TrEMBL record:
Stored Pfam families: Sugar_tr (PF00083)
PROSITE patterns: MFS
Major facilitator superfamily (MFS) profile domain span: 58-487
Record has Mitochondrion as a keyword: no
Any one GO molecular function term: transmembrane transporter activity
Coiled-coil annotated spans: 258-285
Source species: Photinus pyralis (Common eastern firefly)
Compartments it resides in: Membrane
Name of the featured protein: Major facilitator superfamily (MFS) profile domain-containing protein
Amino acid sequence: MKIFILLQMSVRYGALDTTYIYDDDSDDYEFEEELYQHARTVEDSQKVHEKTWWDVALESFLVIYLLITAANNGMIMGYSAVLLPQLKAVNGSLQIDDEMGSWMASINSASIPIGALFSGILMNYFGRKGALLIYVGTVTVGWVFILIAESHTLVLIGRFFGGIATSLGMVPGQVYIAEISHSSKRGSYSSISFIGLSFGILLIYCLGSVLQWRIVAGLSIIIPVVSALMLLYLPESPVWYIRNGNLDKARNACFWFRRNIREALEEVDELVKRVANENREREENPRSTLAMFLSPQVLKPLIIMNVLIMFQSLSGVYLFVFYAVEIISEIGNIEMNHFLVGVITAAVRVAFTIVATISLAFIGRRPIAITSALGAGISAMSLGTILYFSPNPNSYLLAGTLLSYISSSTVGLLILPGMMLGEIFPAKVRALSGSISFSMFSVFTFIITKMYPILKQTFKFYGMFWFFGTISFLAAVYVYIALPETKGKTLNDIEDYFLGNNFLWVTRKTSGTNQEQT
């Protein structure tokens, strides 16, 4: 039996009438040859495949949205570096000690698993866009609590909501980017989010260097409101539409992002086939959610990503985001305004995130990750050695080594784990797997952030940086052994890699389509 579904795809040159065939006897979708010919005719005559000013405008709009949304998370993460020094000042309006300061810095990470747990559910039920709109509401509530805070409790509540919002935005954001991006642009789009993240950290440092912490919280509400207004004009993910049986909207959304009729239709066709195969497999082999997660196709990338996230957190890359000004003021005799040095470190982070974005267009994930980890390890070990042998090191040498650590860790360790969350997991569990991995990130980050006062007292700063250096070197070895190369691969290619007998990269099969770059 064949069911003919008639649809119209509206394009700015008119309407394209297409016939889409579903053969429910074979659970297979096919396109009629006339459809391909029609698509080619439209492309040849109307030049849909050539970029116009309108295509550039739409792509720019998407990029700006990604930057602004990610900046929200950067401002949440970097806010403690602004808040703590002001509250610890002699004339601070809400005096705190190191213990309370560590809670204000780390509670953001402690609450992330709550948002991560619900983000997968929200993504599947309300869509990627719906989850991102809920994120905007949550982050706004967090900033309002801090704005009106007259006690430590309200500040902690605001930071708590900020942590929930971070995961509500980060996981759906990365999944959304991965699902709407062409394989050739997915790395660049994903890393654009981290440019926004780094810019948000820079922005909050700049505001905090000249404004009182309460005013900074109030101004921070503007960014999520702008991102929500922009999101209203973006389509939902085609993958979510297909998984919910809405083929018409999936085709329209895919065309919006691809600006190419034939390419959009072929991509939807491939996605529909994969979903049909998954449904058939689920009917033939019904399994619980736990059993599905224990399948090699899911378990292998889940293990690989969570071990990488552990190395990322323990390398100190995010600890410096939370405690930048405080660390700078305590590690040595840096003869500059400590807030200014914090702003400089944030600016360096932005610059090298841009470097990483450009590099990802030409270089694979693995070489970038290995180079980043080695560079961070060398810089952290050097910084620890300088602090150990010289009680009063040269301020320029100290600042230069510190900036080297920040720049090298930013290029790979900071951005790659989060970027790969949206691409390495199978579509059927992408939302939930991303939520689990982001929860693990928050657990490790909470531990290292909460332990910071103990680390600096027990091991001193030189021992702490030696620890970060050791972890970074181990991360480089781990990436070389285990992390798969995903550059230039479609999401389906990545799924197929783990369907085979591939786990460790060094023991992968390289025949056929699995020929990979080093």
